[in-house]
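User: Teach me something about this protein's shape.
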Amino acid sequence: MTVTWEDLGWERLAAGVGRCRLPVWDCTAGLVVGADAALSVDAGSGLGEGARLRVAAQELAGRRVTHLALTHPHFDHVLGAAAFAGAEVFGAVGAGAVLAGGREALRADAVAEGLDARLAEEAVDALVAVRHEVCGEWTLDLGGGRQVLLANVGPGHTGHDLAVLVPGEVEVVFCGDLVEESGEPQAGPDAVPSHWPAALDRLLDLGGEDALYVPGHGAVVDAAFVRAQRDTLAARFGVSR
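Assistant: First, the predicted structure itself:
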């Protein structure tokens, strides 16, 4: 019997493309399946969550996850990365240094947000390195004509924001926390507010008017939502067009 996206609690967005909304922080994790390889987008908030994502992704893809894209270096998106053993890990340029040099801050943030201290310590200790840093754009060939574009569109929500564009009959853009639907976008101490609206302009240039935009938290949105959020952030931070 063929397992469907819905069987595993995932949302199918296009052929071979889907995402799930993780509990607690409503964080998005994505999956893109090609003929020869599979890409996961973000890894969850701990090793257990990462392992569950990997198992589900492998069942849906029919093969192991070969690539992992981290949209930004926040705990709820990266602490499950070590569960994707053998995957090639991608991030925006500079993300690797943030993760390598900021482990204590990452652990403290996770615990402050409610993650069990032991689980946070375990995940931080096991955190894998970002092997491939994207300065501009990087195209991944997953086989069978499926190519995925990784784009360094930040800074904005953080200093190291990576978007994932999946071309196709329906184009899908994984936005990370540059876009949030289930709440107001969060601007922490590592945000770069003066550049955030421009980062959303780059997302819109990548996906266009008809794409599906997948936020880091919340429901899938359209270009009009992203544009409205861009204008709201520009007003909030006093950034002129």
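Now, about its shape. The CA atoms of residues 19 and 30 lie 4 Å apart. The chain has a mean pLDDT of 96. If you'd like, I can walk through any region in more detail.
User: That's plenty for now, thanks!
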